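Dear colleagues,

For the upcoming journal club I promised to circulate an example of a predicted protein-ligand complex. I picked one with shikimate-3-phosphate because it came up in last month's discussion. The inputs are reproduced below in full, followed by the predicted structure.
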Amino acid sequence: MSSSSGKSKPLSGTVRAPGDKSISHRAMIFGAMAEGTTEISGLLEGADILSTASVVETLGAKIKKLGEGAYSVKGCGAKGFQSPDVDLDCGNAGTGVRLIMGACAGYEIRARFTGDASLSSRPMNRILDPLREMGVRSDTQKGGRLPAKIESDGALTPITYTPPIASAQVKSAILLAAVNTKGVTTVTEPIPTRDHTENMLRAFGAKVELTKRNGANVIKLEGPAVLQAAKVNVPGDPSSAAFPIVAALITPGSDIVIENVMMNPTRTGLLECLTEMGGHVQADNFRKSGGEIISDIHVKYSKLQAITVPPERAASMIDEYPILAVAASVAQGTTIMDDIGELRVKESDRISATAALLAQNGVKVEELENGLKVTGGPVMGGGTVTTHHDHRIAMSALILGCVAEAPVSIDDASMIATSFPTFFDMMNGLGANLS
Ligand code: S3P
């Protein structure tokens, strides 16, 4: 399904951010591991989460839909995950496959994981290497790609591990394996990443200890930990809210409010950048929901200035670079985003996909070895963007279309439903011109 986006009238209105993808995956996985029935509200009903739900069902959890975004998950508890007799198809979801592999590793299990073309091109050894150190056996395709088999006797050895890259998925896979591993597992993160796994482990009754050593986070989990079912209220996703936020900032005359946005400081790097660029992004009505701080964000059209994004901010905005590059396309000056080589192994190579999307629509952009330089100016549009099965590339291109002289088209919009199934309705409801 192709799609295009024409010049937009001013955006206005109040919308609610969809449920957070990271927390939704975790709610399903933790619920599946726990003893008892977990109740989830505000779940993101995106294709990625539905893949995770179906995989944990195959492993033995019982899931019921109770209403919109409302689910119950009867966990496997002491019985543990069961070896499946079919492949575990994780679809497009990197978080799903990596966290479920970690969770499986702690049980006596044999399983084979598959995914779509995008997921099958992504590296899995970043989690399989530490899991192998703990005692898991694993076979993958060349370069640690899917399909991958894992086999565990459910009697792993705890490890002390410092991931070579800043990755919440790596940290989480190890901690989930540690839940059913006797002894203390330690993960040291020189650059802290999103802490949803640690927070949810505590909410499910595990003891997770966090200390600081020379600026690094040292996280310890003593296993085995018996997870107990909990109530999870999923807050709104700042990585999805990023699209209407940037759309309103760059479309002249816009004035919108996005409610229910999670403000966990490990996720707010984009808001810091947009504020530094001179954007009116005012968060207020701070409150707590499901253990996270949420707020409503008031966004008004603003004239933006280029910035150099500090590399140490990358972990807190790792999924937001494509949409930041769209904001940079109309900012005065040259925005520099460097030291973000990790973007090359996301749902697509997001450095080259973002550079291509901008260049095809007349934006001045330079691809660096590990980053991008974007110079703002008028956006010609008229290009057809190749999305490479990447939802964030697709949505970024369509937001660029809001300010382009000629419509911006994309080759495929179907994968937007992995993270933001209501994207078209929400954007058009605000006044955008997406078809
Ligand atoms: C996620 C972690 C990040 C992020 C992904 C979600 C998570 O990946 O890009 O969209 O939920 O833990 P990395 O851990 O690979 O940086």
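Two points we might discuss: The first helix runs from residue 21 to 33. The chain has a mean pLDDT of 97.

See you all on Thursday,
B. R.
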